[in-house]
Amino acid sequence: MHRRIIAPGALAAASLLLAIPASAASYSPGAPGIGDPYYPAYGNGGYDVSHYDLRLQYQPATDELAGTATILAKTTQDLSRFNLDFLLDVSEVRVNGVKATFATSGQHELEITPKTPLPTGTPITVVVRYSGVPSTKSAYGFNTWHRTPDGAVAADEPESAWWWFPSNDHPSDKATYDVSVAVPNGTQVISNGTLQSTSSQLGWTRYNWRENKPQATYLATLAVGKFDITTSTSEGGVPVINAYSKDLGDNDGSARASVERTGEIVDWLSGYFGPYPFSSAGGYVPNTTTGYALETQTRVYYSQKQFANGANTSVVVHELAHQWYGDDVSLKGWKDIWINEGFARYAQWLWSEHEGEGTAQQLADYVYASHPADDAFWTIAPGDPGPDNQFELPVYDRGALAIQALRNEVGDDAFFAILKGWPKEHAYGNASVQDFQAYAEKVSGKSLSALFDTWLFEPTKPAAPAAKAAAITKSSALPVQPKSWKKIAATNDVH
What we know:
Blueprint: H1 11-18, E1 28-29, E2 47-59, E3 64-75, E4 79-85, E5 89-95, E6 98-99, E7 101-105, E8 109-113, E9 123-132, E10 145-148, E11 151-154, E12 175-184, E13 188-191, E14 194-201, E15 204-215, E16 222-225, E17 227-233, E18 239-245, H2 252-259, H3 262-273, E19 281-285, E20 293-294, E21 300-302, H4 313-321, E22 330-331, H5 338-355, H6 360-370, H7 393-410, H8 412-425, E23 430-431, H9 433-444, H10 449-457, H11 464-469, H12 485-489
Helix pairs in contact: 3-4, 3-8, 4-5, 5-7, 6-7, 7-8, 7-10, 8-9
């Protein structure tokens, strides 16, 4: 609603305006997209979600999912209508207890019109009843619901929520979660956070999971199947919950040999990034045919293909580093993907140092020398790669190069203070590449605009002077390949 200052001579007219019922005021629909230039239709405008309560029932044999989502939010404008991102079939919607009308539009939009318009700042409770077969639904020509021999998995980036719960699907609107799912006895449910309780009745078992810290929608995960679940506590006191499909075959041993080191690696990463930010840690390895891993909050998704050649702790390091860089501090917009991937890759370089398989500087030298000036590698800018290049190799490797350049520019004391201070500075929030630069400048006391521009934004290989300033090798001879290189390279398709 537009408001203006009213002069004394216009008091009579103002009185007439005030007499107009609220329902006749200039309410408007919330935007069908949150404003991200990479994905204009993702997310929605007009409200901010604080909590998702999902009460579901799933039948693995038929892939039928039914349930009720209760969404707690607050309006951020005078709303006549608002959208949720969703694909399944909706039977009823209520807003603050009153039935609302609804319709679908676009590729994945659920348009909701409350019976009464909603003023700015109004707390709202949205209840959506729905059902469907997720594997039959698609948007933009793809489906991110992964069927397995004994169930299904929801884990993908930048979108996966549409196939199992209605949401404001953008990382900038984080919320807490309760995920309650009933499945046939003998089947299990894995999700984020901690398992609050289980109960069985009439052939069904219900699992109640809770993530009590803000979580981006793409980091919410659901896995249904038959798992071997292990529990432990890290030396630093972090509860660890891991799960392995019972039909991983020859990959079972290597998967366990990698993921069972989660507690050790969480404690080790805490030395660099600060205290672990969540109530639990862990991962799960379902029997899927995908080849990637994903940093789903507290419960990392791993494809068994990640361990087809034996154990690989490097991929575990990568995904666990995201718990700080990506999950705790999430990107403001998808163009800020370097905040996630550059630092997760750099954590692998630090792990290489820890394991005595090559220092971060040696890895930086090797990456720099491996890509000649005319290599397309240098044309992708990690600081804003574009939606088509968001998960391409330069975001990871050139992104980590930029971090090594920063380390050499500011010195180890300031650098490691930045690494540890950043997650605390923006805990459970969102931040951009520009925010990180400003924070690094504040901690180091140096102007870093030229360095960030050179390593993150210029579509060319940094020239020799810039490389020298960052202590990157300029020799035409390719440095000796660090021992960790093949393990790190094996994670290039993690996302």
